[in-house]
Amino acid sequence: MLLRWFFIKGKNCQQRMLILVLALAMSLNYSACRADNNITSSASLKMPTEISTKQADSMKINIKVKDKVVTATLIDSKTTEDFISLLPLTLTLEDYATTEKISDLPKRLSTEDAPPGSDPAVGDIAYYAPWGNLAMFYRDSGYANGLVILGKIDGGIEAFNVPGSVEVTIELVQS
């Protein structure tokens, strides 16, 4: 029936052809997007929304910046577990591209099961695997290959939006 409708010549033939081409393009686009989601779904990041209170507390860190203490919530991942094993940690965060504060870590973190990259937002704490450094974003930034989000600063991000470097101490919140 559809084929008969398609091949009937007349005034609307070009419109029918356009509809068919658009439907085919949308179908292929959907399939491609669907296949891409299947690849990254196993490496999806889980925010600690459905975990026990004890586990939620162990996923919180304090970041001491001068006389302020900023709290952040970490996500549950192998990279984050590796990061937590380094705490407590005192670092000098250098400004990078007036977007983020970065610092080298004492050792490289695991990127097992991590997505191939991320698009960080204001307040994100991330590990940039190619350089082996920690990044805290105080402005929006674009997608970066090798960027693994570790968590998000809960509030007080303005403490990082200052010129130059800042010294921070990062500690796991003890319950």
What descriptive keywords fit this protein?
single chain; 175 residues; alpha+beta; eight-stranded antiparallel barrel; two-stranded antiparallel ribbon; 10 strands; 27% helix
Secondary-structure element series: HHHEEHEEEEEEEE
Which regions contain 5 or more consecutive residues with pLDDT less than 50?
Answer: 31-57
As a whole number of angstroms, the C-alpha radius of gyration is 23 Å
Roughly how many Å apart are the termini? 68 Å
Total beta-strand segments:
10
- Shape verdict: elongated
Query: Helical region count?
Result: 4
Largest sheet geometry: 8 strands, antiparallel, barrel
Mean pLDDT: 80
Spatial strand sequence of the major β-sheet: 1-2-9-6-7-4-3-10
- Proportion of residues in extended strands: 25-35%
Relative helix content: 25-40%
What structural category characterises the helix and strand content? alpha+beta
Give a written overview of the molecule:
By secondary structure, the protein is α+β, with helices and mostly antiparallel strands. It has four helices and ten strands; from the N terminus they run H-H-H-E-E-H-E-E-E-E-E-E-E-E. A hairpin with a 4-residue loop joins strand 6 and strand 7.
